[in-house]
Amino acid sequence: MYSVRPLSLAAQDAIEDLPTEFTSALSIPQHQQVLDAFSQLDLISRGSQRPKLFQLRCLISLLSARYVVLRAATGSGKTLAMILPLLLSPNKIAITVTRLKLLQRDHCYHEFEQYGIPSIAINHDTPHDQIRDEALEVSISSRRS
Questions:
Q1: Phi/psi of residue 104, nearest 5 degrees
Q2: CA–CA separation, 56 vs 37, rounded Å?
Q3: Which is more confident, 54 or 132?
Q4: pLDDT of 37-80, one tens digit each?
Q5: How would you class 112 by CB atoms within 10 Å of its CB: exposed for 0-12, middle for 13-18, buried for 19 or more?
Q6: Which among 11, 48, 74, 140 is least buried, having the fewest CB atoms inside 10 angstroms?
């Protein structure tokens, strides 16, 4: 038997504040995915973060096997939109394409790691041996989770 961790009051309020036009269009499994996203993020962030509506829309689309192209301002939460489906589906992978090496490093070594998601950055400067070794390491650590 396991215990269910209650959501923070802020997360409960955020769920209640979701627009009706969003929640009424969700299927029962999609409702559960939204609740799971709130629960996972609430647990990992210790109640300090809640998914935004656009992140939840991305989550539903990605978990429904649809492609998503997201354009949003810097700092708006695009990375978390990629992370949420991975939190709910740990056997899945995400491929992110960016021109900026600094952004790759920030995603791989800071944000993804913060959520316990193994990742690698591959660019022109990455030696082929390192790509193979890091991909193997990510694959092995993913299987242990």
A1: -55, -50
A2: 8
A3: 54
A4: 999 999 988 888 999 999 999 999 999 989 888 888 888 888 89
A5: buried
A6: 74
Closest CA relative to residue 112, chosen from 93, 127, 99 = 93
CB 18 within 8 Å of CB 53: yes
- Can you tell me the distance from the alpha carbon of 46 to that of 29, in angstroms, rounded to the nearest whole number? 25
Q: Which amino acid is at 51?
A: P
**Interatomic CA distance for residues 52 and 50, integer angstroms:** 6
Token pair in block for residue 119: 């990742």
Number of residues that make up the chain: 145
Largest CA distance in the chain: 51
The type of residue at 86 is L
Task: State the residue for tokens 């829309």.
Answer: 57
From residue 24, give the alpha-carbon distance in Å to each of 1, 18, 29, 32, 99: 32, 10, 13, 13, 38
